[in-house]
Amino acid sequence: MTITTIPQVFLIFGNGWIASQVKELLLASNKKVITSLVRIESREQVMTELAIHKPTRVINCAGAHGVPNADWCEDHKVETVRSNILGVLNVVDCCFQLGIHITHFGSACIYDKSPTGSTFTEDDEPFYAGSWYSRSRLLSENSIRHYPNVLILRLREPIAADLHPNNLISKLFRYQRLLDMPGSGSVLPNLLPGAILLSEHAVTGIYNLISPSPWTNNQIMELARKHIRPSLTWENFSLEDMRKTLKAPRCNPVFDASKLVAKLRELGYEVKDSREALEDVFLEMKAKGL
């Protein structure tokens, strides 16, 4: 008897920085990939895309994060709500109605630094709504977390081997003064292959897509100075001084990535420690002449 395997078809909503990296990885592994640029808050447009392309997997990378930073959301509250809450709920619900697994790239900026110094797991109730961006992401996750067809991957301070404006490295290069407190982040070249693996295996639930150990801004800048910017200099300032320069406060949580590490190990993939993953990023940037 011949068993016919239906090839997976990936439909990606969004064409930004992370969506482009996901698409590149999928194409490199010979997957069929379609990118959709429809407005995810439009039910008619989303359902039409799903009907036309008949994906076996959907990946949502669309959403408002703010340019040049999250302060943008403070002045564009309606746009942020329509994208991060209405849009996300709509695309997840459309996929649910059609029985399609969806991977949603959300935000880990829905927690703040723990007063006890403990790390946050996926079982800890999210609570941080100090900025409009974080509030929209908090409401978004709480709206979709109980859908049985969704995998929520929480990202924070993403880093990759480029100088894209959304890359934490690029952001730090733009500032003369930096806060130097430990916080968690996502080294994308090591984590995104794992995210695709989770999607392929139709894993559901919430995962902190976070590199295992936290870092400080100074540590990132020191690696940059070591590998690609020998003359790099910067100053540090206090949390109070930083807040004076922003329209909305920022959070600085630290996460436990053990659930992610264990699940991906079960699927045959190893998540690197943050230091090793960061070294790899800067070595790749050096090789590219960045």
Radius of gyration, whole Å: 19 Å
CATH homolog superfamily of the domain at 9-159 and 185-213 and 253-271: NAD(P)-binding Rossmann-like Domain
Distance between the termini: 54 Å
Order of helices and strands: EHEHEHHEHEEHEEHEHEHHH
Assembly state: single chain
Would you tell me the structural class of the helices and strands? alpha/beta
CATH class of the domain at 9-159 and 185-213 and 253-271: Alpha Beta
Contiguous low-pLDDT stretches (5 residues minimum) are: none
Helix content: 40-55%
How is the largest sheet built, in terms of strand order? Answer: 2-1-3-4-5-9
Give average pLDDT, whole number.
Answer: 93
Question: Which fold does the CATH topology of the domain at 9-159 and 185-213 and 253-271 refer to?
Answer: Rossmann fold
**Which CATH-level-2 architecture of the domain at 9-159 and 185-213 and 253-271?**
3-Layer(aba) Sandwich
The total beta strand count reads 10
Q: What is the tally of helical segments?
A: 11
General shape: globular
User: Main β-sheet: number of strands, strand sense, barrel status?
Assistant: 6 strands, parallel
Residues in β-strands, percent: 5-15%
